[in-house]
Each structure stands twice: as C-alpha cells, then as structure tokens.
Amino acid sequence: MFGSKVAVETLKLFPNVKNIVIDNTKKGNRILNIRNLTRKLEKFDVAITFRTSLFSKLLIKNINSKIKIGSQNFLSGFFFSHSIKISKNIHQVERYVELIRPLLKEDLKTPDLKLFNSVEKFSKKTVGINPGAAYGSAKRWFPERFGEVALKLSENYDILIFGVDSEIDSCNIIEKVLKEHGVENFKNLCGKTTILELIQKIGGLDLFITNDSGPMHIAAAYKIPTIAIFGPTDFRYTSPWKNENAIIVRDNTLKCSPCMKRVCPLKHHECMSNIRSEKILDIINYDL
C-alpha cells in the first residue's frame, strides 16, 4: 500500500497487507523523488492507482509491473496497460470497485467498508464530535454549534472531541463552550491520537457527529450511529457507505449546493449556516 500516512496507517492491519510505504515525495522535486522511490521497490504482478493526479500516474508508470491499472482519461494509455472507463454519478466506493473488476474471476458486489482494528469499550455512553474536514473550510460546520450540541448531549454522554493539529482552534472552541457551562465529562483529543488510536476510539462510540470527512468513513466501517453534516460536497458520492445507522443532514433548498468548492464562492456559506443546532438535537431526540 502506497499513500499518505493517514491512508496507509488506516489499512495497516489488513491481513493481506505485506508492506506500507508512506508518500514522502512531496518535499523537493517530486518527479525525481517518485523515480528514486520506485527504483527501490520490488517487482509487482499488478499495480493499481485509485487516484487521478499526474503524480499518481507517474508513480504507476515507473513501477516495475506488467499490469498497470488506472481510470481512463486524457493520456491514460501512456501510463497504464489497462485504462478502465469509470461510470459517472456513482459512489466513490463503487468507482474503486470498478477499477479492480478486470482482475476478478467473478463479479464483485460492492462490499461494506471494513477495518480490522479492535475497538475501545467505554464504561459510559460516549459521543464523538468531529468538527474538522480536510478538503476545505466550506465543509466544516461551525464549532460553536458543535459545542451547543455537545453541551446538551453531555447530560447523558461522555464527550470525545477529535481532530488533527490544524483543527485545534475548532476543537478548543468546543472545549470552551463545555468548560463555561461546568461540563467535566469530556476529553479534547485533538492532535493527541495516532491513526490506529483514532480508529479504536471511533469504533467504540455510541454516537458520532461529524462533517463529511475521513473519520466519518471509519465510523461507517463499524456501523456507528452517525450524524453526517454535508454542505458543499455531494452526499451521493461520499456518503457513509452502507451505514444504515447514519443520517445525512444537509440544506436541500439551496440551488448552489453542492458546489464542491473548498471555500464558499458566494461568501455566505448558507449550506452550513442554515443548519441549526436544534436540527441535530431534534434528530437525536434532544431539545436545546
């Protein structure tokens, strides 16, 4: 497995994973770094990229493998031995499965997400709050509103706040709301967990409230009851895959949503601002 640290660490415990290689090619001349990296790798039977960037194509191009698979697009025939035409308007999971279908003896129905990590057993009902999202600020619901929801839920749940170092300001706002109201049954874990620890904790939750994000998909793998808040991104493609315990919350009245932009191009961010704390609590059957 080759990719970002987050991606490969997530898949580290899969039984068939022999080795993981963290992508450290971004520092310096990336093209040169990719060439040097691939020279050190062994020979493979098959190489597949699920990404569409130029650098992912160059990686596969330089890997020692007769079979090289990627999605069909401009010049893909130059990089891959097998360019697969991917259907439009399907979930991201289905897109990935289409890439590997040529390798299968039998057709594969799109499976559930799965992780092999053990999960934490909490002594009390526990809710996870995830105010971050890597793609851009437009994907993030307001931390003050996460704080309002966490405050109400703290009456019956212990609270865990999740995030990476770059999201510490948002996590601290939630912590401030809780502290101002004398809440003590919470932990701010922002920047304090490894990927494996994050999976372990999310997998043991009773409830998860999150933006459209990577941790949302971790929760889907364990079928955790999830409130997933969507703004500029399209739930049809990145919803919690086959998590029957997930509820998607979005404002479906706006013509501008989903815009798929990192930052609101209209400067009003109504796809998120129109979602009130009361709506989330109403779904969970709580009154603010």
Question: Can you walk me through this structure?
Answer:
With 288 residues, the protein is an alpha/beta fold. The protein folds into two domains: 2-103, no CATH class; 126-283, 3-Layer(aba) Sandwich (Rossmann fold), CATH 3.40.50.2000. 33% of the residues lie in helices and 15% in strands. It is built from twelve helices and eleven strands. The chain has a six-stranded parallel beta sheet with strand order 8-7-6-9-10-11, sandwiched between helices. Helix 6 (143-153) crosses helix 7 (168-180) and helix 6 packs parallel to helix 12 (277-283). It is globular, with a radius of gyration of 21 Å.
The helix fraction, in percent, is 25-40%
Radius of gyration: 21 Å
Taking pLDDT < 50 over at least 5 consecutive residues as the criterion, the unreliable ranges are none
Shape verdict: globular
- The multimeric state of the shown protein is single chain
Order of helices and strands, N to C?
EHEHEHEHEHEHEHEHEHEHEHH
Number of helices: 12
Strand content is 15-25%
User: What is the name of the CATH superfamily of the largest domain?
Assistant: Glycogen Phosphorylase B
- CATH class type of the largest domain: Alpha Beta
What is the fold-level CATH name, i.e. the topology of the largest domain? Rossmann fold
- Total beta strand runs: 11
Q: How far apart, in Å, are the first and last alpha carbons? A: 45 Å
Describe the main β-sheet briefly.
6 strands, parallel
Strand order of the largest sheet: 8-7-6-9-10-11
Mean pLDDT: 94
Number of domain modules: 2
CATH architecture of the largest domain: 3-Layer(aba) Sandwich
Class from helix and strand fractions: alpha/beta
